[in-house]
Amino acid sequence: MFTDIKIARRHALGLSKTLMIATMVIGIGNQFAVITADDFDGDLVVINEYDPFA
């Protein structure tokens, strides 16, 4: 979990490029987390999405 959105975005972009999978930054309360698109179930607030193939 991250408290700074800039750090969460940087990690999501790096993870997306390294693993070559889509990642998302989600908001949980006043914190942020990075998940893969495979883990997304539709009940979360997506702030940013990073697709390495786009």
Q: How would you describe this structure to a colleague?
A:
The protein has one helix at 5-19, and strands spanning 23-28, 31-36, 45-50. The protein has 54 residues and is of the alpha+beta class. Strands 2-1-3 form a 3-stranded antiparallel beta sheet, covered by helices on one side. The relative contact order is 0.28.
Layout of secondary structure:
Blueprint: H1 5-19, E1 23-28, E2 31-36, E3 45-50
Antiparallel strand pairs: 1-2, 1-3
Oligomer: single chain
Mean pLDDT: 93
What percent strand?
Answer: 25-35%
Sketch the topology as an H/E string, one letter per element.
Answer: HEEE
In DSSP terms, counting alpha (H) and pi (I) runs of 4 or more, how many helices? 1
Give the termini separation. 26 Å
* Helix proportion: 25-40%
Biggest sheet, strands in spatial order? 2-1-3
